[in-house]
Fold this protein.
Amino acid sequence: MEFRPRNYSAEEESHSLPRVRAENDPLSTPCSSKEVDVVGQKEEIYDPLRGIDANSPASLKDLQYFDDNSVKVLSESSSVQLQEKEWSSFKKFLIQRFSVPKTVSVSAMSDVIVKIGKASERSSTNMHLEELEDPQKFAEEGVRMITQKEYVSRLHELKAEIAHSWQNDDRVTSLKLTIKVTRLMMDTSVLQFYPMLFALATDIMDMLGDMVFERIKCKAEVSEDGTRICYLPADFTSSDICSDAKETCNNWFYKIGSIQELLPRIYLELAILHCWRFLIVQPADCLKRLVTMIRGIADPLASAYCRLYMVHCSQKLPHCSVSVGYLIICINDMKVQLSRVMSARETSHGKLLENPALLIILIEPTIEYIMKSIFKDLNQDKKELFGTIPCVSVILHHLLKELPVEVVQSNAAGIINLIECSNDTSFDQCLNYRLLGFKLCESRRQMEVTNVQAVVNRVIEVFRVCASCLCNSVSTQYDCLEKYLTVVDAFVDIVLQYGMDNYLSIILEGVSERACIKGIAENELATLESIFIKLLTHFNNLEDAFSLSHFVEILDMMYGSSRSVIIVHILKIATRSGYLRDPTTIQFLIEICQALHDDIDFPNVKEDDLQQPARLISRFVQMVDYGAEMERQLTFLVECRGAFSGINELKETLVHKSNHLAIKAMKDSKNHLSFIKACIAFSEVTIPSISAPIRQLNLFLETAEVALLGGLISHSDGLLDSAITCLESLDLMNGSRVRADVDGILSTVRKVCSLFVMVPGSVERGVTNIPKSIFFLINSLSWMAPRFRTRILCAVITLTATLSQKKLPYHANHGKVPGNELLFFEDQSYCEELKSLSKCVLQNLVDVVHQEPSQASRGVMALEACDCIMSSFKLNPEISTICSKLIETAKLCLSENDKYLQSTMELMNKYLPTTQRAVLPLTV
């Protein structure tokens, strides 16, 4: 067995392609393509995404047609359908928002809910007389308890009964039952149940109103004998209605007008409000009268929801005839009523005053809906909303919510006056300040800086007064950090938007004072996080943010996920703007990284949740650069290894940085041998703490390369031994390996073999110590497949053949580290040791090829082994016999026309001596 001599320089030159200068840069922008005329008839293709051709007469017709159809689609009927959907969604919101008690008390007035016999039914007049004679006895006997589920079920039954009676032409019964349902709205004893009762009862009223409307409309279109009189258009008026239909309509209003109780009478007239279209030209004129009638309802809750129903019913009238004036009157009436409730002057319903806060919460949805209805038509004048009646906080909040941004911007000072004047208990005042701040930020049109400063000064002045009271132990509404942050969060945007950075110190000082006294609660962290994110986003330079007064102090007082989010944001900014060289900034970032690391619950954290913090901390370590102070850089890496011991990704980064430092020191003209040793030692200590063996293996090889470049032979030997140990531990990994993992391991083993070419051999350990270790290792790993083993054995054979050459293909450190061709020059024992190992590996290689179960794979493996053998050894009779057997194996497994087989046979004929070439034909 004799190794084939190689001339690597000549082979490289012979296999290199000839280089010719190109006329044009192949990566440059190509020239404009030539226009190609297509012969044939030009066909016009319609592109739906193409713009309309203004010069085409056909397009103008299409445009006109489109406009006409748009008007038809956006008809009044579709608008009514949209309003109905909104109303249905609003009722669902009412039911879901308020928790309803399991049992509901039912008064004697609500006998329609409790099923009783006709003999025991009493008229409302008799019930009122009994209540006047003995109120206590009436209250005790009249109140009954019923479950909420039974109450709702009974209302659904009533709805079905009303519809059934109407279908049987028993309209009187339908009206009587509906009147009983409307009387339920008079009972506000169970406050939380009232919104659900309203949603269910008004559904019944709407059904009756629609049935009455359709009956009168049918009377107007069809005579009693069934003759069609006309088809009423959608925009019909009272002049289109016949006298018979008007008489029927008047009868319905007379019946409802005779109802004794005020609230049922109003509700039922509202239910058939759209029927006024059959009688008068301007049906919306009735709304002012109904608004006045609602003032007679003393109960604040009942009157608020009655106004809400009036707004809903008015939407069924023609839109052009309805003015928002009646809605503004409703809002002003609610101002007066809520003011009385808060001042405890409302005495007619004592129970409502027991919990005024709950009462206002229940009334708030009605205010919101009415306010939205007011601002649906932006063309109508709404100045009366800012009338002489003092504003209530809850009403002011929803007014601000609906006001256009431009109006808020131009009247900011006046709105602040309203907020200060409406300082009551109906709504949290800080939310009005917050809403004002957000509204001012929404505007696309910039305000004058002086006006903005005036607004911010007014708000800051409130904070300063509260801060002074806080220092003097005087309680104010803004001494609570939560409310203070609520307002500040909105106005920080304005301060940053208009460049008023001088106010930031005042704002942060207020946060610090309140946080130092009472600490930061969990519900305050989210708002504080929002403020800090805005500050960090605003400043391009982190040093500017860190220099703000109390910024670092407040961040230290934060905790939990909010602090982690801010730290992550800081690290993102710090690591995207170049290298970090300022010692103060680096120290601060180390501290916040330590805080982020300490907040991670490593035993229980999911891998996905750990990725972002680990990646950012690793990126921070990569970006720190102390320049020429390499010892300080290494000290920094040592500190990071101790501080962030739980992050494997960071440990890999530390090893890469340490090796980079060693290479940097080698390039320096000064002698840094001791420093290079320190960097290598750092890597040697750090790598074993990484959990993944394959990552350890790659890092050991990287560090071994660095040690070789530095001439540290003993270190490189130890690192290569550690790499082999990692290879041995790979069998402890999960047995279910995918192809990508196997290919990666194969690539790493080949890298070990290529790296060993540069490593000087040791006489004591034997020059083939590491190749032998690899050979014995692959035979001991049970999970290693034959194909994988074949390629590693080929790599070992190639390694031994390379080491036998008189001139190696490459050396460490540009030849400063002597190679084996110099250390063992003409040493026969060295060559014999290489041949001995090669012979053993060669026999094992042939055996492994025949162990492959797949026929196609076995053929390819045989050809790969044959190529490796022919390129490593001279083809003497012994080697020729082995190669011939491998080719015969390939012939049995592959097709005759296989190109790989043909090329391998040609190569073997080329290497064979002339006397032996007839033995192997060129064709199969």
User: Anything to note?
Assistant: The first strand starts at residue 103 and ends at 106. DSSP finds 41 helices and two strands in the chain.
